[in-house]
Amino acid sequence: MKLKFFFFWLMAALLAACSAGQVTTPTLPAPTMTAPTLPQPAVDAAPQPVRPTPTIPAPTAAPTSIPLDATDWKSWSVIPALSPEMLDIYKSGQALQRDPHVVSVVGDCESSSDWFLKDFSKDERFYDLGPYASLQETIDHFKASLGYRSYAALRGATAPTVLSPLWADPQACEQNETPLACEYRVHNPSFAFIALGTNDIHKVDQFEPNMRLILEYTLQQGIVPILVTKADNLEGDDRINNTIARLAVEYHLPVWNFWAAVQPLPGHGLQGDGAHLTFTSNFFNDPENLKGAWAIRNLTALQVLEAMRTAVQEK
Predict the structure, then answer these.
(1) Mean pLDDT score, 147-154
(2) CATH number assigned to the domain comprising residue 264
(3) Domain span holding position 109
(4) Predicted confidence (pLDDT) per residue in 193-214, tens digit
(5) Which helix (H) or strand (E) element contains residue 312?
(6) Paired strand residues for 192
(7) What are 203-249's pLDDT values in tens digits?
(8) Sequential DSSP letters for 94-146
(9) What Cα–Cα distance (Å) separates residue 59 from each residue in 43, 241, 246?
(10) Per the structure, how many domains does the chain have?
């Protein structure tokens, strides 16, 4: 009984930590507000005026080579290329009958929210691609999985969380199955966004070893992991994103450089707490919406999936 009480107390504490500031109708920070702990991006010598549209590469602008210098991650493209090593992983997954139309999400509240990609599993009343209409083919390709509830995307999640059976959904997951293994078994993906780190700042030393376990299990399953840099710098020294970059170089992984995508936005895309993303809807035909981090998160996620889809089809 004491163990159960402790477990439920622990889950409640972590959920509260992740949900702080994230409400159904969030308020955007004033355009001049800057998160206090976030450093100025290295590419800007002086504050720049807000642009009507963010500087986002087109899906066809993916780099032709994989970055080799992890220390230079802030200058990496938002949209990654697929390395030959990861193409081999994709092919091994197809031999295991992984579904090429499914992408899983492994992450925290910025990935478990209904705001992340789910609108694109619905009809066009819920989004407008505007000048990015070419992404509709990628939406159609992954459409069903964009609406899935991921069993490995959990509010309050850390890297250790997705490896713990204590956090698995008892209605969907098998006995002693981790959330990560459960998600991969139930949804059978070919790709997986790995978007963790914001909640790992209190035990940063545990982040890298647990991320290695996540990555190695993912690769063994024939699934291509897509690492995601986080927008915040709550730890103060970019240690989490530095680790993500090093792991990407070591394992030859694609990196969705979300940190770079939000740098042109007001407040670098962060609410006043320096953690949660500013909200705008997925109507990309309105330039004002592209000043909010959630619209940019969804747009660049679709562009990453477009780059992955075309890479495996071309080769």
Answers:
(1) 95
(2) 3.40.50.1110
(3) 58-314
(4) 999 999 999 999 999 999 999 9
(5) helix 293-314
(6) 104, 225
(7) 999 999 999 999 999 999 999 999 999 999 999 999 999 999 999 99
(8) HHTT--TT-EEEEESHHHHSTTSSGGGGS-TTS-B-GGGGGGHHHHHHHHHHH
(9) 22, 23, 24
(10) 1
**Side chain identity, residue 27:** T
8 A C-beta contact, residue 229 and residue 201: no
| CA 274 – CA 233 distance, rounded (Å) | 8
- For the chain, first and last CA: distance in Å? 55
Q: Quote the CA–CA distance of 40 and 45 in Å, as a whole number.
A: 9
45 within some domain: no
Whole-angstrom Cα distance, residue 75 to residue 44? 11
Indicate the DSSP class of residue 24. Answer: S
Distance CA 77, CA 255 (A): 9
User: In the numeric block, which tokens belong to residue 57?
Assistant: 């590469």
Beta-carbon contacts of 29 under 8 Å, excluding residues fewer than 6 positions away, are 266, 267, 270, 271, 272, 278
Q: Is residue 3 situated within a structural domain?
A: no
In the three-class reduction of DSSP (H, G, I as helix; E, B as strand; rest coil), residue 240 is classed as: helix
User: Is 297 contained in some domain?
Assistant: yes
- Per-residue confidence band for 124, with pLDDT thresholds at 50, 70 and 90: confident
Q: Which residue has the tokens 């953690």?
A: 275
Cβ proximity of 223 and 89 under 8 Å: yes
* Residue 203 near residue 175, CB atoms below 8 Å: no
As a 3-state breakdown, the chain gives helix, strand, coil percent values, each rounded to 5, of 50, 5, 45
Residue 221 in domain: yes
Burial class of 54 by CB neighbour count within 10 A (0 to 12, 13 to 18, 19+): buried
Tokens 């840099």 locate to: 229
| Burial per residue of 24-45, b for 16 or more beta-carbon CB atoms within 10 angstroms, e otherwise | eebebbeeeeebeebeeeeeee
Orientation angle between helical segments 207-220 and 239-251, nearest 10 degrees = 30
Q: What does the alpha-carbon distance between residue 141 and residue 216 come to, in Å, rounded to a whole number?
A: 26
